[in-house]
């Protein structure tokens, strides 16, 4: 399993509800259709910082998700809401433990 973590800074905090809605309505359908998709989490850290974590079977699939997200941001014209390029970290998940339940 491979993960991609994207950290976004400078998010327009007055528009986070809009961003969450757009992620759910238009980004998630694209990501879930990608081969190897295993999960997505969006984290609101406060002070205009959000991070997303995506899980895929292979590193190539995880990297493809970054291209999909970048295209989605352009297509949705979210440059003013998400003005800065994300800091991206990716790699193989080397330890994994869940209790089998994921809650929103």
Would you write up a description of this structure?
The mean pLDDT is 92. With 104 residues, the chain is of the alpha+beta class. Helices cover 33% and strands 31% of the residues. The chain has helices at residues 16-32, 59-75, and strands at residues 2-9, 37-46, 49-56, 87-92. The longest helix is centred in the N-terminal third of the chain and has 17 residues, at 16-32. A 4-stranded antiparallel sheet has the order 2-3-1-4, covered by helices on one side. Helix 1 (16-32) crosses helix 2 (59-75). The chain is built from 2 helices and 4 strands. The chain has one domain (2-92): Alpha-Beta Plaits (2-Layer Sandwich), CATH 3.30.70.100.
Compact overview of the structure:
The chain has helices spanning 16-32, 59-75; strands spanning 2-9, 37-46, 49-56, 87-92. The chain has 104 residues and is α+β, with helices and mostly antiparallel strands. The chain has a single domain, classed as Alpha-Beta Plaits, CATH 3.30.70.100.
List the helices and strands and how they pair.
Elements: E1 2-9, H1 16-32, E2 37-46, E3 49-56, H2 59-75, E4 87-92
Antiparallel strand pairs: 1-3, 1-4, 2-3
Helix pairs in contact: 1-2
Count of discrete structural domains: 1
Oligomer: single chain
Through-space gap between termini: 22 Å
Count the E strands.
4
Strand order of the largest sheet: 2-3-1-4
From the alpha carbons, calculate the radius of gyration and give it in angstroms: 13 Å
Enumerate how many helices there are, as a single number.
Answer: 2
Mean pLDDT: 92
CATH architecture: 2-Layer Sandwich
Low-confidence stretches: none
- Strand content is 25-35%
Briefly, what CATH class?
Alpha Beta
CATH fold category name: Alpha-Beta Plaits
* Secondary-structure element pattern, one letter each: EHEEHE
Which class of secondary structure composition applies to the elements? alpha+beta
Largest sheet: 4 strands, antiparallel
Helix-residue proportion: 25-40%
**Shape assignment:** globular
